[in-house]
Amino acid sequence: MTEIAEQTDWTKADKASGRSTMPFSAFEWFLAGRYLRARRKEGFISVIALISFIGIMLGVATLIIVMAVMNGFRTELIGRILGLNGHMMVQSATGTFINYEAAAARIREVDGVVRVTPLVEGQVMASARQTASGALVRGMSTENLANFDIIADGIEGGSLDTYRNLEADGQSPLLLGARLAQALGVGVGDKITLLSPRGASTPFGTTPRVKAYIVAATFQIGMSEYDSSFIFMPLSEAQAFFRQNGSVSGIEVMIEKPDRVKDFTPSIKAAAGDIANVYDWQQMNGTFFNALQIERNVMFIILTLILLVAALNIISGLFMLVKDKGPDIAILRSMGATRGAMMRVFLIVGAAIGVLGTIAGFIIGVLFCENIEAIRQALIFLTGAQLFDPAIYFLNELPAEMEMSEVISVVVMSLVLSLLATIYPSWRAARLDPVEALRYE
């Protein structure tokens, strides 16, 4: 009775001041606040409201965190792939690029081109100490190899100076992926044998090409596919080994803006010549990046279900609140409160849960992403378990990269779902018949 009397006082005050016709008046906010602060006998309704709040908060935070981590992984993978393979590959339609030096010089003059690297590639069988493994040999000049930051920064054993000195002494140095070196059981200074099917032609067929090389250094860039299969050697040595004297397999091109690679294709092709074919990184890795995009979209849809469940909790909580407050609504309606006022009261109740939960989830998600590596280290310390083991994921740190557009879309979606969840229960409260509500009171 005390609660109804307080509500009556607010109704009279609103009427006296002329505020009863104003939407979202002080009376409506006061009443919504009283309904959010449930009394002890209405504890179950308060629990449902709390569960709805936690559901919205966890849904928003989880979406922000997961999407940021997936963006971080995608950025890391793209950076490593493009850092090693380049943004564009220019190849000759005849199979080998003979006048590659002139073509490379013309390509360097194109605006936006950062680096041009003629190279020779070929598949080989690498063997050492009775162990063999398939590998991809990439021959390029030592100057160009030193300009690849992802390789220069990833040297584990030996050095590029050793590699350069061995080449200057007329020896045959190699730069070996760390996992490949581990698989073959070799280290810096050891020799490995490379076997290529591109050998000399004889009356009895083609004989394989076999030669021993010195491991000058090992590198690790953080991707198993590359660390376990890539071998670098000087360009002249690769041309001799694969019998491509005076020619290369292709010309690798790095540009300033990889995302706009399609815009550079016509000018690069014109500079390379009529017989050149140009392939960009999106074409060469299209399947891989499409799979990442599909996974990202599916994960977003799945995690959105958390918000839907929380929105359903808001609906159920409001229905129970409307049923419990039926007599109060009937008395207020009989005293002059409009249906619109009653609907707005319950809209405020439901929207408050959604807005507060969204704000809390946004804050938790942003703070988690900003400190995700520290949190990972803390969990490792507390549990003793290795979370995101670098030996498996090949990343020393857990990446997280928030995109403002995604964060805004998550927040907006949460607010819209919360608001939509309040409409039908609020409409039911507004349609409540005072006579039926008070019949058995």
UniProtKB/TrEMBL annotation:
Domain MacB-like periplasmic core: 50-270
UniProt entry keywords in alphabetical sequence: Cell membrane, Lipoprotein, Membrane, Transmembrane, Transmembrane helix, Transport
Major localization listed first in the record, in broad terms: membrane
GO cellular component annotations of the record: plasma membrane protein complex
Gene Ontology biological process terms in this record: lipoprotein localization to outer membrane; lipoprotein transport
Location within or outside the cell: Cell membrane
Membrane topology: Multi-pass membrane protein
A Pfam family recorded for this sequence: MacB_PCD
ABC3 transporter permease C-terminal domain residues: 300-434
Annotated TM spans: 44-70, 298-322, 343-368, 374-395, 407-427
Similarity remark: Belongs to the ABC-4 integral membrane protein family. LolC/E subfamily.
Protein name in UniProt: Lipoprotein releasing system transmembrane protein LolC
